Each structure stands twice: as C-alpha cells, then as structure tokens.
Amino acid sequence: MSGTVVVGAGLAAAHVVATLREEGDDQPVTLVGDEPVRPYERPPLSKGYLQGATPRDEVFVHPEDWYAEHDVETRFGTTATAVDREARTVALSDGGVLGYDHLVIATGSSPRTLDVPGADLDGVRTLRRLADSDLLRGDLDARSRLVIVGGGWIGLEVAAAARSAGCDVTVLEYAAQPLLRVLGPQLAAHFAALHRAHGVDLRTGVGVEAFDGAAGRVTGVRVGGELVPADVVLVGVGAAPNVGLAVAAGLAADARGIVVDERLRTADPAVLAAGDVALAHNTALGHGLRVEHWDNAIRQGALAARSILGQDAVHDWQPYFYTDQYDLGMEYVGFADADDDVVVRGDPAGSELVAFWLRDGRVRAAMNVNVWDVNDRLRALVGRRIPPERLADESVPLAEL
Ligand SMILES: Cc1cc2nc3c(=O)[nH]c(=O)nc-3n(C[C@H](O)[C@H](O)[C@H](O)COP(=O)(O)OP(=O)(O)OC[C@H]3O[C@@H](n4cnc5c(N)ncnc54)[C@H](O)[C@@H]3O)c2cc1C
Fold it and tell me: What does the alpha-carbon distance between residue 337 and residue 288 come to, in Å, rounded to a whole number?
C-alpha cells in the first residue's frame, strides 16, 4: 500500500487530494498535517473570522466527514519529520512511517519574525493559523491599542478589522508607502489614504528598534527614538517558505522555495511541491515564481494531482489575488514590477477604479477596486499591447479593449 502522501494539510494539500479523487484515482491517499484540524482557508483569519462575522465552520475546505467518505487517510496533528527518497518513505513525529509512490510537499510558509529586543514578549503576535486569529480576536476591543509592524496585505487587513472593532491602530512600515513593492507609488498611496481616512496612524519609512514590556507583556514599540504605546503588537513582515523537509531530503530548495518545473515536479519524479512553498516554473511568464496566494494554492493543488495522474496540464496561468479592507474590495491579476508604467481608469483618488501596469506598451497586470465581474476580462488583457489612452478612456468598454 503506497499511493500518494501529501505533507502539509493546508489549502493546496486539500486540493491535491480532492482532485485525485475527482479524477478517479483509487490509489491510497494520506494527508499529513501538523495542525490539529482539517484543511482550512486562511483569508478569513485576517478578515471576517477575525471580526467574528465568519463562523468557524465556514473556514474549512471540506466538511469533517469528507475525508473518510473519499477514502483519504488523515494524520492531523502529526509532523512529517524526514523524507527518505531512496526508500520512498516519510517519517512522522508519532513514530510512524508512510511509504509513497508520489509525495507532494505542500508545507506552506511561516511568518517572519523580527530579531529585535523584546520580540518574545507576550502580546507580540504573528498571524498564520486559526489559533493565532483566535488570540488576536481576543485582543481587539475598543480599549486596546494595536501596533502593526508591516504595511503588507495581512497588516492592512488586520488594521481594517481592528479599526472596525474600535481599536486604536498604528501601522509602522519600513518603506516609504505600504504595499509599495507590489503596487508602486501611485496605487500604494491609494491604500495609505484609505487607512488614514479610517483613523489609522500610518507611519512610513520607520524601522522598529525594540519592543518594551512590563511583567513579560509588551507595552510599546520603539521606533525612530520614540515609544509607541501598545497593548498588543502584530508583526506582519512577510512569510518564509517551509522548505526544511525538502532541503534535508537533498532536493533543490532554499529561502526562495522548492524548485519545481511547470508540472510541479522536483528533479525526483516521485516528489512534487505545491502552494506557498513551491518555486514553480510559470510558462506564461517564462520564469520560476513562488506565489503566496489563495488562488495559487487551489490551482497548484489541482495541478499536482493532474501531474501525478499523467495528465497534460501545466503551470500556465497569471497569478491572482484579492483583498478586502473596510468597504474596499480588490482583485489583482498578473505579475508586474513596482516601477512599471501605471494607467488608471477612473478617478485615482476615488473608491472605484481599474489600474493597469505596463512595460514597453504591454499590459503586465491589472487590478479592479470596487468594480466587479471584470477580472476575467482583465486577465484576458494581460500580455496585450493596448495604447494607454484607450486603457484610461472610460468611454471605451473593457470588453472592447
Ligand atoms: C491571515 C492570512 C490572510 C490571507 N489572505 C489572503 C487573501 O486575502 N488573498 C489571497 O490571495 N491569499 C491570502 N492569504 C494567503 C493564502 O492563505 C495562502 O497562500 C495559502 O494558505 C497557501 O496554502 P498552502 O496550502 O500552500 O499553505 P498553508 O495554507 O500554509 O498550509 C500548509 C500546512 O502545512 C503544515 N506543515 C508545514 N510543515 C509541515 C510538516 N513538516 N509536517 C506536517 N505539516 C506541515 C503547516 O502547518 C500548514 O498547516 C492569506 C494568508 C494568511 C495567513
């Protein structure tokens, strides 16, 4: 009995096993995850679930009995500790050993932390797991002062949730704008203005020097020689791929992810990687890319299963992600650099707009903000040469570009 072993019971893993079963695979499938619960979606942890609006039941990918009904063996609360590629086995923290014909490493990523004094004080938190969101939710009441280190997606989503709960929120961002590296200065300014309009004390160009505490609990953040008082701190400074298993197994992997081809295979044909951990060759872009987004985990989970089944599918789609902050909902498709040319359709300072990123006259990425049911159309525009005046001209329907 070998079949497929999937390590890391997150979103990508859930879609590996679901696709294997949907495609009629009847070989043994085992899902190994170090968290005590079945796979769940992380986006609600910084949005609806954090705010108490999304019930816990709704975050799971499948109902509880789905795995047994589909003959998927589960080992939740169990860490995969080593892979022996010669013997084709995975060792588990409970002493068990699983044989495999195919192994999918879908171990995701872990929040980066700050190496400054006081980083281990109580109340200095990161956000990745359900339990992290539960703890943070417990901190969000109207009397609390939350300091968020890092103006990335998670930091800004939590800022929005905390402001909605009435907290006093300060965001400390090292760069000159939040989201600068992803969106470039013009659209980054849009998000900065949004948060300031909602009462966030957003400070940019600042680096955290230390966390102050009393009786083991954080009381403030030292930044630029000043002390910002805090009852709780969220450190949202990015995530690092969980490559330890792959590195120890002698696979090509480092801080950039596990190197896989367009079918998500490592150099060992029996071992694949998917989701946040995979540095996967993208045929649409012509280079390897590691993507830390929900859509990618779903699509790559399905693709890993199709590769195992020998189907003709490759990693050929443009990256996609979304965010919700206050009354702003946004979708982004493509892959651009912050210094690409930006064209905005609609009022750049308004609440509804579509933005395009271009290089050498070609659309590389597009984003719709509070404009709905257009993202498929925007996806179709990526890669095309369209005059910027036409892109900006609202009298030309998107469908006619
Ligand atoms: C708070 C938050 C909000 C987000 N919001 C958005 C959003 O709005 N839009 C968007 O596009 N994306 C969002 N994302 C990103 C998205 O959730 C991730 O890209 C997605 O979860 C990646 O799925 P994955 O399966 O690759 O990894 P994960 O979901 O991280 O799953 C990997 C699992 O593997 C486990 N694991 C690791 N090592 C081992 C081991 N050795 N043995 C056993 N198990 C192991 C981990 O503990 C984890 O449970 C958000 C992420 C977070 C944390």
Answer: 15
Residue 45: is it exposed, middle or buried by C-beta count within 10 angstroms (0-12/13-18/19+)?
Answer: buried
Mutate to test the pocket of ligand 1, among 294, 318, 332 (most ligand atoms within 8 A of CB): 294
Residues of the chain below pLDDT 50: none
Atom of ligand 1 nearest to the CA of 278: 26
Amino acid at 390: R
The C-alpha atoms of residue 28 and residue 394 are separated, in whole angstroms, by 54
Strand, coil or helix: what is 163? helix
Token digits for 182?
Answer: 């992803």
- Enter the pTM of the model: 0.97
Residue 112's CB is within 10 A of a number of other CB atoms, namely 14
pLDDT in tens, 64-123: 999 999 999 999 999 999 999 999 999 999 999 999 999 999 999 999 999 999 999 999
Q: Quick one: 119 exposed, middle or buried, by C-beta within 10 A (0-12, 13-18, 19+)? A: middle
> How far apart are alpha carbons 91 and 80 in whole angstroms?
6
Q: Are 245 and 83 in contact (CB under 8 A)?
A: yes
Euclidean distance between CA atoms 354 and 248, whole angstroms: 45
Q: How far apart are CA 17 and CA 26, in angstroms?
A: 11
Q: Which of 1, 2, 6 is nearest to 305 (CA)?
A: 6
Q: Which domains does the chain have, with CATH numbers?
A: 4-110+239-308 (3.50.50.60), 113-235 (3.50.50.60), 327-400 (3.30.390.30)
| CB of 140 sitting under 6 A from ligand 1 | no
- From 351, 347, 345, select the one nearest 377 (Cα to Cα): 345
Cα angle 271, 277, 282 (rounded to 5 degrees) comes to 80
